[in-house]
Amino acid sequence: xxxxxxxxxxxxxxxxxxxxxxxxxxxxxxxxxxxxxxxxxxxxxxxxxxxxxxxxxxxxxxxxxxxxxxxxxxxxxxxxxxxxxxxxxxxxxxxxxxxxxxxxxxxxxxxxxxxxxxxxxxxxxxxxxxxxxxxxxxxxxxxxxxxxxxxxxxxxxxxxxxxxxxxxxxxxxxxxxxxxxxxxxxxxxxxxxxxxxxxxxxxxxxxxxxxxxxxxxxxxxxxxxxxxxxxxx
Length: 233
Known about the structure:
The chain has 233 residues and is α/β, with parallel strands linked by helices.
């Protein structure tokens, strides 16, 4: 059941909640690692309806990571080789995590009665890969998706599964990437945005941030909040 999915859940300040943001962490991190985001939103006042948002920061299961010699750590899927988009990919693990994210979306709809068009999913690095793949594979429309320092390593699988047109083809998507990212090269991020556009996503923004490494800088976070505000206002 989706209610059993481990996650940091932060309820809206005012009740009932009218929107939800579900943000997926990267390799080796946890939901706690992004749980500061609601406080940033509240302090910045960029998002006008910030008091009405539920936040969910799911925790990845701990699994052995092949590229790290089988070391067990929080991860949404196994990794066989770093930095090589043509390497063998854990397709099963990626799709399973997409299903987990879909269950969390349904939890907000069915349990908290949030309209699907007011639900935004997002993620950082490995989490961004999951968020972007999930919005491509969803069989119902949501509000939008955010991918920070992300990538897509199962392009053929996604392209084959969505068929002629994705339901969220015109749903707003924001992808941000630092130009000095040593973990996920900025060019790989750019290729990811070009892939999603090539399979029919028409409301897709890809923005680079000069000098930023594998992290989310202040300018990027400001753009993320503006993106969220545009959807929820």
